[in-house]
Amino acid sequence: MNLESNKQIILSRISKACELTGRDPAAIRLVWVSKIQPVSAVEEAIALGAREFGENRVQEALEKFLPQREGVICRIIGPVQKNKLRKAVLAAQAIDSIADLESVLKLEALCEEANKNLEILFQVNASEEATKSGLSMQEAADFLHALPEPKRLVYKGLMTIGKNTGNPEDSRVCFAFLRNLRDKIFNSHSKFSNFTELSMGMTDDLEVAIAEGSTMLRVGTALFGKR
Ligand SMILES: *Cc1c(COP(=O)(O)O)cnc(C)c1O
After folding, report:
1. Using the 8-state DSSP alphabet, how is residue 156 labeled?
2. What is the pLDDT of residue 130?
């Protein structure tokens, strides 16, 4: 694996996709998905300028991202069991996979206790694949409207995983659904004044995600190599 050239390839894919769709690359954050990778790979990425990482297991996040490094953000991007939320709050600055009210309430209490703020993205299962977690497309809007006013939490937006068919075009409808939902929710209430983020697009479908308005790409394989 050559992390530096992989990074260059990803950055040029992003800028090309932005050029094609008239978007500003500065409006798209790259989350380096470091799951399974050793801490040495994280350090190498940081040396190359990476500042935001995605981990899908809390234990790995703890091992790699504590103690916290100045300016480095760890995002939990996989579903978190209720009994792991406390540790997730310890390790991460953001959780992008929230899809139930009980976790929201628990996180609010844990963040109050830890005197800490936490960014939250809500995961929507917009591909409607049974193996994936997230709010269903039908329930998502009602769920969001019913959320309590956040205190320590910041409701930042939505996350989804595209369709895993081998054809990135198949993810387009999922991404468009997420963008429309974000547009409807943003500023619909004071609790949604920060609701701008769309975490969508991975190694295989980031161009389609950019075309559909992604603000945050989650890339693992194309940066760190096959897991
Ligand atoms: C592993 C993972 C990714 C990264 O996928 P790649 O195809 O390796 O880029 C993105 N999002 C989530 C939720 C993941 O679990």
Report:
1. E
2. 82
168 cis-preceded (ω within 30 degrees of 0): no
Residue keyed to tokens 């994280």: 42
Mean pLDDT of the chain: 97
* Per-position b or e across 149-171, b if 16+ CB within 10 A of its CB: ebebbbbbbbbbbbbeeeebeeb
Q: Which atom of ligand 1 is nearest to the CA of 224?
A: 8
Cα 106 to ligand 1 centre (Å): 26
Domains of the chain and any CATH numbers: 3-224 (3.20.20.10)
H helices, E strands: number in the chain: 9, 8
d(CA 114, CA 58): 17
Residues in the chain with pLDDT values less than 50 = none
For residue 190, is it left (φ>0), alpha (ψ between -120 and 50) or beta? alpha
Atom of ligand 1 nearest to the CA of 204: 7
Q: Which of 117, 98, 121 is nearest to 31 (CA)?
A: 121
Q: Is the CB of 164 under 6 A from ligand 1?
A: no
Residue located nearest, by CA, to atom 6 of ligand 1: 220
Residue 140 Cβ < 6 Å to ligand 1: no
Q: What is the rounded CA–CA span in Å between residue 159 and residue 199?
A: 5
What are the two backbone dihedrals, phi and then psi, of residue 86, each rounded to the nearest 5 degrees?
A: -60, -45
Number of CB atoms found within 10 A of residue 100's CB: 14
